[in-house]
Amino acid sequence: MTSTSFRVTWIEAQSNFVASATETVLEAARRAGVTLPAECEFGGCGTCRVKLVQGRVHYDEPPLALAPDEAAQGYALMCQARAQTDLAISTERVLDAPAPARRRRATVVRTQKLCGDVTRLVLAFDDGAPFVFRPGQYLNVLLGEAGSRSFSMASQPGDTHIELQIREIEGGYFTQTLLGTLHEGDALDVEGPLGGFGYHEEDYRPIVMAATGTGVAPLAGMLAAILAADDAPPVDLYWGARTQADLYLHEHFSQLAARHEDFRYVPVLSRAGEAWAGARGYVQDAVLADHTDLSEHALYLCGSPGMIADARRAFLANGASVRYLYADSFTFQHPQPAPAGI
């Protein structure tokens, strides 16, 4: 690269290209064979809007579709922006928070084993105030010196209780040590709502949801909201598990599919027994077996980081657009902390 050329890294697509100071970032991407989202190409529609995670750009004239406060927050339009430094850009579209996160005291309403290593934890807030959130968001359970643990909510806004579906992690301080000791009436401090994951109603595209394990929890909340709408797009939910016993919401989704003709439920087992007549293997492979071209779909992925990384690569290779691909990756809980002073 010359001194007037800069490297541009597109985070979601895991690709990079070189842009000169005399061309727009969109022009440089196309020259390199990289397809960034774009439509009008004169700065009027905002389709090519990205977040500048790193670096600076400038414009010959301020683009119409980029408000000054958006530019101040680090957003840029690639059809008009020219690089001034190396750039790292993100096309992820994060939804605005419906309410600010705050700390609240919650009371355990009940705990229930859903399957061998998954527990349903239902909480109510002591102050009785409504809990405003968006399906797909999560909350943190606050554990003092042990830090916090994050769990997606499977509930709907307006519900009087908050439901968490928690998988036990080997050595997990909360999931393996504390969760089993909780009883009705016990108190927990929580913080929420948190996170930008959720349903992008403005897309209005056929939807494919893919989850592994308890990654189905936030998707269940989103799905309920989508199916309750008068004019919802068709939705296919693919849920990956090891064995049939791990499909702890199987009956629920089967009943939803029976009631809604535009909803399809596909359970996928990686360790299926001989009697299993459904899909086998990895959930992303089951999606591609049914959808060889994903160019018209919006995709929502939730579950293990490995599944999401593999699914993202496979779906993009089969026509999916990064603009319409949303992911929420679950990571393991922290191990039990060592005693103070050790």
UniProtKB/TrEMBL annotation:
> 2Fe-2S ferredoxin-type domain location, by residue?
6-95
Which part of the chain is the FAD-binding FR-type domain?
A: 101-200
PROSITE patterns the record matches: 2FE2S_FER_1, 2FE2S_FER_2, FAD_FR
Q: Which GO terms describe its molecular function?
A: 2 iron, 2 sulfur cluster binding; oxidoreductase activity
Q: Which domain of life is it from?
A: Bacteria
Q: Which PANTHER family does the annotation name?
A: NADH OXIDOREDUCTASE HCR (PTHR47354), PROTEIN RFBI (PTHR47354:SF5)
Q: What is this protein called?
A: CDP-4-dehydro-6-deoxyglucose reductase
Species of origin reads Paraburkholderia lycopersici
